């Protein structure tokens, strides 16, 4: 499989994905790699509902996704959705090679450690910042933007804004 | 008899309720949800599920949503499937909200959506000026 875009976005599949990003990447399949979604029937229904009829959708646990990426040798263009920097790191640690990750929505959701607003659509908690640092340390290029037409911000700038 | 749940992007649902109250006076028992930039969709879903559970104990649910395919609609449509007797209308508008409130004690949610479908032109229409 060809990962046309890997994206961190806690909304997973939504309007920006199925319009802007699908058009930009020409992906024909959506893969949600997330243990929580894979075990939540209501969320699975929502993800199916949000997927255009013309696209294939797979909702997989991190382990299932790692297996699929290692076994599937086709050239299918895939848009890979990851809930947060932590799940991105888990998938990479499970052996999936992802050279570049788009950082999209990190919402102002409940957090035990508190969140800091960095951009309109990015609220980092401490764990996010640490996991993003680890992704960079492992050589992953981070491209921070909400939609394709946004100006991209690099990962290091995002993280230094958190620690300012 | 049904309970009304409004769900939209941003403040549209909240403000639709306020505008309806300008016309009708205070409207009780309407639940309102908005999804704002930076909000977690998961948390909106949890909140709406809790409210739906509570409201469904007393009556059917009627969801009025802004736009088909958006997150407020997606969540509402799943709740509509989860709670028997519920129904959903998207493309919600002020006249539909006012009608929904007026009929909430005399119709079921299913009867109300059938009624709206039959009488769409009372709520949505066009008017053309002289041709140029």
CATH level-4 homologous superfamily of chain A: Phosphotransferase system, sorbose subfamily IIB component
Enumerate the strands of the largest sheet of chain B in spatial order, edge to edge or round the barrel. 2-1-3-4
Number of domains of chain B: 1
Q: What coarse outline of chain A follows from CA principal-axis ratios?
A: globular
Please provide the ordered H/E string of secondary-structure elements of chain A: EHEHHEHEHEEEHEEH
Rg over alpha carbons of chain B: 15 Å
Main interface pair? A-B, 18 and 18 residues
Q: Report the radius of gyration of chain A as a whole number of Å.
A: 15 Å
Proportion of residues in extended strands of chain A: 15-25%
Could you state the order of secondary-structure elements of chain B as H and E? EHEHEHEHH
User: How many distinct folded domains of chain A?
Assistant: 1
CATH superfamily of chain B: Phosphotransferase system, mannose-type IIA component
Q: Which CATH top level class of chain A fits?
A: Alpha Beta
- Let me know the average pLDDT of chain A: 95
Which key terms come to mind for this protein?
heterodimer, A: 164 residues, alpha/beta, Fructose Permease, seven-stranded mixed β-sheet, two-stranded antiparallel sheet, 7 helices, 9 strands, 40% helix, globular, B: 132 residues, Rossmann fold, four-stranded parallel β-sheet, 4 strands
């Amino acid at each position: 499989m060809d990962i046309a875009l890997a994206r961190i976005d806690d909304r997973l599949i939504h309007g920006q994905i199925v319009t802007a990003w699908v058009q930009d990447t020409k992906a024909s399949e959506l893969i949600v790699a997330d243990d929580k979604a894979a075990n939540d029937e209501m969320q699975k229904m929502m993800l199916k509902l949000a997927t255009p009829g013309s696209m294939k959708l797979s909702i997989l646990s991190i382990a299932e996704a790692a297996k699929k990426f290692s076994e599937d040798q086709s050239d299918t263009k895939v848009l890979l959705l990851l809930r947060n920097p932590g799940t991105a790191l888990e998938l990479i640690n499970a052996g999936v090679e992802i050279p570049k990750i788009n950082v999209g929505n990190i919402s102002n959701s409940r957090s035990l450690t508190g969140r800091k607003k960095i951009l309109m659509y990015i609220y980092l908690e401490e764990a996010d910042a640490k996991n993003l640092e680890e992704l960079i340390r492992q050589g992953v290029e981070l491209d921070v933007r909400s939609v394709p037409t946004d100006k991209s911000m690099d990962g290091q700038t995002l993280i230094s804004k958190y620690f300012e | 008899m049904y309970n009304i749940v409004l769900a939209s992007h941003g403040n549209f649902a909240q403000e639709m309720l306020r505008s309806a109250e300008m016309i009708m006076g205070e409207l009780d028992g309407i639940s309102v949800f908005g999804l704002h930039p930076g909000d977690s969709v998961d948390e909106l879903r949890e909140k709406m599920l809790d409210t739906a559970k509570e409201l469904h104990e007393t009556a059917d649910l009627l969801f009025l949503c802004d736009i088909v395919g958006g997150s407020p609609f997606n969540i509402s449509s799943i709740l509509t499937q989860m709670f028997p007797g519920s129904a959903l209308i998207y493309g919600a508008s002020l006249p539909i909200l006012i009608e929904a409130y007026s009929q909430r004690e005399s119709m079921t949610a299913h009867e109300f959506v059938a009624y709206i479908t039959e009488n769409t032109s009372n709520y949505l229409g066009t008017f053309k000026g002289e041709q140029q």
